[in-house]
Amino acid sequence: MDYPGPTDAPVTGRTDTTPRPTPARGAPAPPAPRSALVALVVAGLSFALLPPLFPHDSALPGVAGAAATATTAWTVSHLFGMLALVTLPLGVYGIRPTLGRGGGVAAVLVAAGAGLALPYYGGETFGAAAVAELVVRTGDAGLVDGIAAIRWGLLPAAFLTGGMLLLAIGGVLLARSVHRGGATPGWAGVPLAAGLVLFVPQFFAPPGVRVAHGLLLLAGCILLARAARGRSTG
C-alpha cells in the first residue's frame, strides 16, 4: 500500500502569498466598463448644467430671495447637482482597473464625500423650496429664517463641508493614481481634481465664475473617461 508522502499532503486551506505581477507602465489595463465611462460623462454634464440654471436671486434677502428659491429652476438645478454626486462615484469606482496605486482609496473617498454632501443637496432641493413656497403663498417674511436654517444650519453645513473636503482629497489622490496608472496624458485627472478642490470656494463666487467651474468639472470628467478608455485599449 502506498502512503502519501510529504509532497502528497492536501493543500486545502493553503493561502497563496505569491505577489501578483503589476502591469508594466503603459501596458494595456483591464477594460473599464462602458457604464463607468457613461457615468463620468453624465456627472460632468450635470455639474455643468447646475450653475446656469441656478437662480442667483435666491441670495436676495426676504421674500424676493424666497421667490427665487421657490422656482422650478431652483429644484431642477439642484437635481442636476444630486445626479452629479450619484454618478461621479459610480464612474470613479468603475474605472479602478485602469488606475494606478491609490485608485481604490480615491474611489472610496469620492464615494464617501458624495454621500455626505447629498443630504445637504436634498435639503436644499426639497426642504428649502417647500419653505420658500410657503413664504410666497403667505407673504410671511419671518419664515425666511427657516430657509436659512436649512441651508446654513450647523449640521447641514458640517455635512456639506465634510463631504466637499473628502471629495477634494479623493480628487487629488485620483489625479495621482491616474498618473501612476500610465494614462495618456498623465495629467488627465488634474482638471477634475482642481474642480473638486475649488468646489467650496466657488459657492461664494459670482455667477460667471460658477459657470466656469461647472465647465471645468465637465472637461475633467470627459478627459478622465477618455484617458481610462485609452488606457484600457492600450
Q: Can you describe this structure?
A:
- The chain has nine helices and no strands.
- It is mainly alpha-helical.
- Helix 1 (34-53) packs antiparallel against helix 9 (207-233) and helix 5 runs parallel beside helix 6.
- The longest helix is centred in the middle third of the chain and has 36 residues, at 103-138.
- The protein is elongated, with a radius of gyration of 23 Å.
- It starts with 33 loop residues before the first helix and ends with a helix.
Task: Summarize the helices and strands and which ones pair or pack.
Blueprint: H1 34-53, H2 62-69, H3 72-94, H4 103-138, H5 144-152, H6 154-180, H7 190-197, H8 199-202, H9 207-233
Helix pairs in contact: 1-3, 1-9, 2-4, 3-4, 4-5, 4-6, 5-6, 6-7, 7-9
List keywords for this structure.
0% strand, mainly alpha, 9 helices, single chain
Classify the oligomer.
Answer: single chain
Report strand %.
Answer: under 5%
Distance between the termini: 56 Å
Helix proportion: 55-70%
Beta strand count: 0
Shape: elongated
Largest sheet: none
Question: Helix/strand-derived class?
Answer: mainly alpha
Question: How would you state the average pLDDT, rounded?
Answer: 88
- H/E order of the elements? HHHHHHHHH
User: Radius of gyration, rounded?
Assistant: 23 Å
Note the total helix count. Answer: 9
Low-confidence runs (pLDDT<50, min 5 residues)? 5-16, 19-24
